[in-house]
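Re: weekly structure request thread

Next one in the queue (168 aa):
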Amino acid sequence: MLDSTAGGTLGVWEDPEDCMLREADEEASLDKELMRGKMKAVGIVSYVHRTDQRASSGDLRLFQPDTLFLYELDLTGHEVGIIRPNDGEVQGFELLTVKEVQDAMAKGEFKPNCAVVLLDFMIRHGILTVENEKDYVEICSKLRERLIYPGLSMTETYIQQRAQILKA
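Done, posted below.
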């Protein structure tokens, strides 16, 4: 399936920015110094999806809550080949137009977690608006679902685990 440029699992020992720097280097050969100077935190998405055979190696049809920390990197002025596979996890990279991305999303060609990131990008940049999308309000609200776990929310759990590690 189509994916984003880079992303990965946030370890309890990492903060989101360090995770993004590590994953961008591992998956896309992006230099950490370039990233530090140009990468911008742009928020989160939180949602629940049902796993399926297209994007899951585990049990199928389970409900999976997820919170994604989002970053943007403007590479205007850099050569196209600056992003290239590094660790064998990615086959290759393609630069797509907005229309090509929208068409691929409509066909279900993106991993679910990447599709929500792309929707958020399109909303933030005025590509997807209330004027051109009948389900705009519903889409916006589903990108920021409150995730309830038996006990603490993911953010609270992350903060508490991180605090315990830093104290040790």
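The chain has a mean pLDDT of 85. The radius of gyration is 17 Å.
Next request, please.
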